[in-house]
Amino acid sequence: MKRMDNWDDFENQEFEGEDLNNIKKFLDKLETDSIDHYYRLCYKALVESPEEMLSHGQDTQIKLRGLNKLINYFKDREEYEKCGDLDKLLKMIANT
Q1: Closest Cα to residue 92, out of 47, 42, 35, 54?
Q2: 20 to 30 Å CA-CA from 27: which of 19, 21, 70, 87?
Q3: Claim: this prediction has a pTM higher than 0.90
């Protein structure tokens, strides 16, 4: 994988093969080792690119469960602004 110096380099990169496998392994390890970092990364990705989530072919119920899990996580930490952002995404899914 080529070196990426900023988010735009990463964001515009298409991953496949070994690179994609390494990213999946990294995210799996992050989820296991630091759920806080993992949820914050998920939140950032969702609010910065909601159209990606909406256009992804995954089952709507899976998306709703995932968003509700994030909302509950941030509600427990009293991060209500994040809950509001995620709630907007729930409504976007309901309208699709």
Answers
A1: 54
A2: 87
A3: no
Helix axes 17-33, 35-48, angle to 10 degrees: 130
Q: Please state the length of the chain.
A: 96
Helix, coil or strand: residue 86: helix
Q: In angstroms, rounded to a whole number, what is the distance separating the alpha carbons of residues 79 and 92? A: 21
Continuous segment of H or E residues that includes residue 76 = helix 60-76
Tokens 């994609």 label which residue?
A: 20
Whole-number Å distance between alpha carbons of 47 and 11 = 14
pLDDT tens-digit series, residues 16-39: 567 777 777 888 887 788 899 989
Angle at CA 22, nearest 5°, toward 33 and 63? 70
Amino acid, res. 64: L
